[in-house]
UniProtKB/TrEMBL annotation:
Protein's UniProt keywords contain Hydrolase: no
Secretion signal span: 1-21
Taxon lineage: Eukaryota, Metazoa, Chordata, Craniata, Vertebrata
Gene field: Timd4_1
The protein's name in its UniProt record: TIMD4 protein
Region (Disordered): 140-164
GO cellular component, one term: membrane
Entry membrane topology: Single-pass type I membrane protein
InterPro entries per record: Ig-like_dom, Ig-like_dom_sf, Ig-like_fold, Ig_sub, Ig_V-set
Cellular compartments annotated: Membrane
Location (main, coarse): membrane
GO molecular function: phosphatidylserine binding
Keyword terms: Disulfide bond, Glycoprotein, Immunoglobulin domain, Membrane, Signal, Transmembrane, Transmembrane helix
Record flagged with keyword Disulfide bond: yes
PROSITE patterns: IG_LIKE
Amino acid sequence: MLSYLCLNWIFLVLFTGPTVSELVVTGKVGQDITVPCHYSVRDRNSITSMCWGRDRCPSSKCSRPIIWTDGWRVTEQHSNRYQLRGDLHRGDVSLTIVDAREADSGIYCCRVELPGWFNDLLLNKKVLIMKARISTASPHTYTSEQTSAPGSTSEPSFTVTRTWPSVSASEAPQTASAPCSGTSDCLDVSANLQNTSVSLPSQQPPEHRLYIGIGSCAALLLILILALFLT
């Protein structure tokens, strides 16, 4: 009877295995992610070996191991991106993933080898690495329109437009001639130009008028001379 009970206890332990807890750790790409794992250290004799591995904790050791420690120092390391930065002598065996990537997402096993049969501390940690969100704001000009609600009384719709600040008149480059400010000014300028173009041919220089006077005097003298001959 006693042997039967012992066999049942052994089978129960073999098939059920040690108790395993599972937690979720989240982080972002490019950050250093720390996956916590601790065990109790009462004295120097309590310091023990442990390992970290990918996938869930198997019945012994670690599957796909990435880092090992004997409790005092790191004995094996799959990559420099996996580090134990905690105080090992106090049971802090938390795993730090340096420069996390999306491929680092998955299940990690922390296995602390404690004395006794089927007495190891097993912790399954689910790590989820997400991309960092980047928000960009557009500096372009935008227009917002506001209209009155249907059925409401008469408030006209208006438009508000935001633009970049304009250059002041004192900062603007000077030109040879300024454009006319309005339609009436432009019409006055064009009329003045037409009057000037028409009156220019009627104006005669002083030399031309002098020649006309001399010619008239000569004609009068010629007429007087002819009259003397006839008389």
